[in-house]
Amino acid sequence: MAQLSDVAKRAGVSTASVSRVLNHPDKVSARIREKVTLAMEELGYVRDGAARALASRRSYSIGSVVPTIGIGIFASGVERLQQRLQEYGYQLLIATTQYDASKEMEAVRSLIERGVDGVQLVGQQHDPRIYALLQGRGIPYVNSYQYDPDNEHPCIGFDNYRSAWELMRHLMELGHRDVGIITSPTRLNDRIAARLNGMLACLKSYGIDQPANRIVEVPHRLADGRSAARALMRANPQITAICGTADALAIGALFELRAMGIAVPGEVSVAGYDDLEIVRHLDPTLTTVHVPVEEIGVRVADYLLGCIEGRAMPMKTELEANLVLRDSTARVRTAPVRTAAG
Hints:
Layout: H1 4-11, H2 15-23, H3 30-43, H4 49-56, E1 61-66, H5 72-86, E2 91-96, H6 101-113, E3 118-122, H7 128-136, E4 141-144, E5 155-157, H8 160-173, E6 179-183, H9 190-205, E7 215-217, H10 222-235, E8 241-244, H11 247-259, E9 269-271, E10 288-290, H12 293-308, E11 316-318, E12 322-324
Parallel strand pairs: 1-2, 1-3, 3-4, 4-5, 5-11, 6-7, 6-8, 8-9
Antiparallel strand pairs: 10-12
């Protein structure tokens, strides 16, 4: 097995330079990094993770506990987080919870047992025992995807409530007053709950008390967005806009409206939330709220690594989730009267 000294000899550099390339590549010139990387490839060098961890008392791994990677936003965020960590020689361990509080507790315990040096959590709503476990062992952690200036725990995220309020205001400014809302479950999901509350508060500011039959809660799946849109239109044929708390639901609504022969945005406007890549390629393209998922991944990595290295890091970081106007929303137009049958 090739040793560190063998790599240094092959690359024509000191063992200290090889160590810096492995542990702090940003502090080494591109020329040295290239020489050392080539030497490692030629020798088939793989560093001894156990010895490294023993010497440094670190595992050089970060844990990320997310509800699911079946949703594009979390998948993209995890990917960017991993890319950033790899730049500093860290690996990412991922655990999914399916929005189950007991599974989240199990996931955090498992990551701690594996010796992770830091943990990313999603949202602000967590079992207090999770915080006690992390704090008791001195493991840095950060909440993400939801900004809350009043929460006692560190966070990197955005204001789901305010951005959803702005999304609904866009529909109001276009003249829509009969609006249907499709939401994924709010239980154990403070981000979706904040988005729904923001939409309802905006409607209230325009003098609209949203009727219960104009809010449909369904699983976070495109097919359920379709069924919810059909249910809304059958119960409320006067609806002129549908707003989803997530893009997947809005995409489903858009597809179902087309299947029902209802023009978008000619008869019904549709808006979502997330800005998944696919929504830019739909016909019509989808008006939505852009979630800064890649920036979250980078900021989370930098925060946790900074804490691990003993640097003072900001407790709260607020990012912007901006409204993106596209072709799926338009001003209210005079349209043929639809029946409840659709």
